[in-house]
Amino acid sequence: MKSLIHTYAGLILATAATVVFLNGCDIGKSDADPDSEFSKVYDNPDMNLAFYPVDAKQTSDGGFMILSVYTDTALSTFPLIHLLRTDKTGKQLWEIWVDRSYTSAIASLVNIGGAFHLVCMDAVNQETRIIRINENDRTVTEVSSNALKYPLYCMQDSQGDLLVLNFDRIGRYSVLTKYTDGFDEIWSRKFSIVDDVKYQIETHLEKTGRQFPFFIGQVGTGTPTHYYVNCFFNYTMTMLIVNAPGGDQSGILYTYQDDAALSSATSIDGNRFAITRYHSGDNFVNPSLELNLAGNQSITDFEDFSLPELAEDAPVRCLHQTLNGKDVVVFASQTRTNQVALYFYSATDAELQHVKFINEKYPVFLTGLEFTKEEGLALLLQTYLIGRFKRINLVKLSPDDLKY
Amino acid sequence: MSENKTLFFALVMLLLGILPATETKILAETSGAGNRSGNNNLVVGFRGGINFSTPAILGHVNVIQRPDGSSLFEKDYLPLFRNLGYQYAFMAMYYIRPGMSLAFEPGMSSFNYRYNTQTGWNNGASTSDYIEYTADHMNTINYIELPLIFRKEFERTGLTPFLSIGLFYGFMISGSKKVLSEVTRHTGSASIPFESSTTLADNSQSYIHSRFGVAPGAGFFYPVGPVKLMLAVDFGFGFNNIVRESDRFNNAGTTAGFYDVQDDMRLGTLNVHIGILFNTGSKQAGKAVECITLKRRKKP
Question: Is the pTM of this model over 0.95?
Answer without folding.
Answer: no
